[in-house]
Specification:
- This protein is α/β, with parallel strands linked by helices and 348 residues long.
- It folds into 2 domains: 2-163 and 203-229, 3-Layer(aba) Sandwich (Rossmann fold), CATH 3.40.50.720; 179-202 and 233-284 and 301-338, UDP-galactose 4-epimerase, domain 1 (Alpha-Beta Complex).
- The protein is built from 12 helices and 15 strands.
- The protein has helices at 11-22, 56-67, 84-94, 131-150, 179-186, 206-216, 237-248, 259-265, 273-280, 289-294, 304-316, 326-344, and strands at residues 2-6, 26-31, 44-48, 75-78, 101-104, 118-119, 154-159, 161-163, 191-194, 200-201, 203-205, 226-229, 235-236, 254-257, 285-286.
- It has a 7-stranded parallel β-sheet, with helices on both faces. Strands 6-15 form a two-stranded parallel ribbon. A two-stranded parallel ribbon has the order 8-11.
Length: 348
């Protein structure tokens, strides 16, 4: 198959790109080339283009030159469209130029608060807490209208919390990623877990996501459909942090803090209203029946404890992944101190 990945070098897309290469597909990467050294010729053909800033006509010309006038991509997978304007531009670029267009949405589009902890693709789409999710919903609605009215061959895929070897999955972290939380653990400092830590969460390793995703590519039964891709495993946030501490071989010291309090204390530094209240603070369990109907042989292989331990081990041997975040570290200390002060005021 002739495949075009828009982006293709992120947490999700890099794993899919590698999996597609293993299958021997003809792969084109349209991106700015920031991680090009990881995706070299001859396995991948690079099209240097910033699809968000260049006009639709220029982008289409570059694509037609790459694939050959009159030819189509079997699949176009869009990983970096976040607003309705992005979706509209993609339609103008790819209409008539691909046999399947896969839009990467997000499982955060499902209603918040949930009416049922178990999520299917029929769960209503509504997230008043996070603009990112509302924009993804608007993209989905636009693209499905193009499918219904113009036959645009769209497939919508909704990832939940998908991670790779570069960052440990966390509920509360700073702008520089997960390392500062690991560093706090290794220094014997307490780390913050939102809520009481008992809400259920679903983690999916990007290699598992990729195995499912490629089964949707070129799949005629996936056209006009929306499907989420997640593991079937559910773990609590307490378990997630305990696995991380065990991977570091250190005792776990935690402070449980209400998600609403964290959001109020974020001071605009972190989007805990959207990413926490609108996503991670909710118990979510995914029903993957639809995915397994479209890809009957798929089952996630990597358990949360296995994946997290592999990620921690990788971070510890790669200094470039150990990006410190002193501002977040100081913020954690302030939040914990405020709670301790509040508790002490009730002591006799």
């Amino acid at each position: 198959m002739k495949i075009l990945f828009i982006g293709g070098t992120g947490t999700i897309s890099s794993a899919i790109t590698r999996r597609a290469a293993q299958l021997g597909w003809d792969i084109y990467l349209l991106n700015r080339g920031s991680r090009k050294n990881e995706f070299k010729e001859p396995e991948y053909k690079h099209i240097a283009c910033d699809i968000r800033s260049e006009d639709a006509h220029t982008v289409r010309e570059k694509l037609q030159k790459a694939v050959g006038n009159g030819n189509k991509f079997d699949v176009v997978a869009e990983f970096i469209a976040f607003t309705p304007e992005h979706a509209e531009k993609d339609f103008s670029v790819f209409v008539g130029l691909c046999k399947q267009y896969i839009f990467i949405s997000s499982a955060s589009v499902y209603q918040k608060p949930l009416s049922s902890y178990q999520i299917t693709e029929s769960t209503p789409l509504s997230n008043p807490l996070w603009k990112y999710s509302r924009d993804k919903i608007a993209c989905e609605e636009y693209l499905m209208r193009q499918y219904q009215q113009n036959g645009f061959p769209v497939t919508i895929v909704r990832p939940s919390h998908t991670y790779d070897e570069r960052s440990v999955p966390l509920g509360v972290h700073g702008a520089n990623g997960s390392w500062q939380v690991l560093k706090r653990m290794m220094e014997g400092k307490p780390v913050i877990i939102h809520g009481d830590g008992t809400s259920l969460w679903t983690l999916t390793h990007n290699s598992d996501f990729a195995r499912a995703f490629v089964r949707l590519m070129g799949n005629i039964h996936a056209i006009g459909e929306a499907v989420h891709i997640t593991s079937d495993e559910s773990v609590t946030w307490n378990q997630i942090y305990a696995i991380i501490a065990d991977s570091l071989n250190v005792p776990l010291k935690t402070v449980h803090v209400a998600s609403e309090f964290l959001s109020e204390c974020s001071q605009g530094l972190y989007d805990f209203n959207g990413g926490l209240l609108g996503d991670k603070a909710n118990t979510v369990v995914f029903d993957n029946t639809k995915l397994k109907r479209l890809a009957p042989d798929f089952n996630a292989k990597i358990r949360a404890d296995e994946g997290i331990k592999m990620t921690v081990a990788n971070i510890l041997i790669h200094e470039e992944l150990q990006q410190e975040d002193p501002e977040f570290d100081e913020w954690c200390d302030r939040v914990i101190s405020a709670l301790e002060t509040a508790k002490s005021s009730f002591k006799k």
